């Protein structure tokens, strides 16, 4: 099952980078930029980011990784609403910072 998740994650990253390649600007990819994405792009980006956070959290502990996975994939539409609401609230932050904060609130810190 882990191999399947890794393959799915790699495919998601490839698709995400193809759909919305990062632009080389000094400010980087901010929440205000994220809000301009099409619905499908948002879906792919969030899936890839959650999968990446799952792997980071699981490196600390299997339970923490499972917590991140369960947090997002249990009632995903509700979680997307929470994520998008937070992204709208903080337009000068980054989407990854929002996801990190939300998942750490639920599952604890990723720092060792």
Quick take:
With 112 residues, the chain is mostly helical. Helix content is 74%, strand content 0%.
Primary descriptors:
112 residues, mainly alpha, 0% strand
Can you describe what's shown?
The protein has one domain. It is built from six helices and no strands. It has helices at residues 2-19, 31-34, 39-60, 62-73, 76-89, 95-107. Helix 3 (39-60) packs antiparallel against helix 4 and helix 4 (62-73) packs across helix 6.
- Cα Rg: 14 Å
- Shape from CA axes? globular
How many separate structural domains? 1
* N-to-C span: 26 Å
Structural class: mainly alpha
Number of distinct helices: 6
Strand coverage percent = under 5%
Helical percentage: over 70%
Per DSSP E runs of 2 or more residues, the count of β-strands stands at: 0
Biggest β-sheet strands, sense, barrel: none
Give the quaternary arrangement of the chains.
Answer: single chain
Low-confidence stretches: 13-21
Rounded average pLDDT: 82
What is the H/E string? HHHHHH
């Amino acid at each position: 099952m882990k191999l399947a998740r890794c393959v799915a994650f790699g495919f998601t990253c490839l698709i995400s980078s193809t759909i919305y390649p990062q632009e080389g600007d000094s400010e980087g990819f901010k929440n205000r930029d994220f809000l301009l994405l099409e619905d499908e792009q948002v879906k792919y980006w969030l899936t890839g980011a959650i999968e990446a956070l799952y792997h980071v959290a699981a490196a600390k502990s299997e339970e923490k990784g499972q917590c991140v996975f369960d947090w997002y994939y249990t009632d995903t539409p509700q979680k997307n609403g929470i994520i998008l609401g937070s992204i709208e609230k903080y337009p000068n932050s980054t989407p990854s910072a929002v996801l990190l904060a939300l998942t750490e609130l639920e599952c604890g810190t990723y720092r060792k």
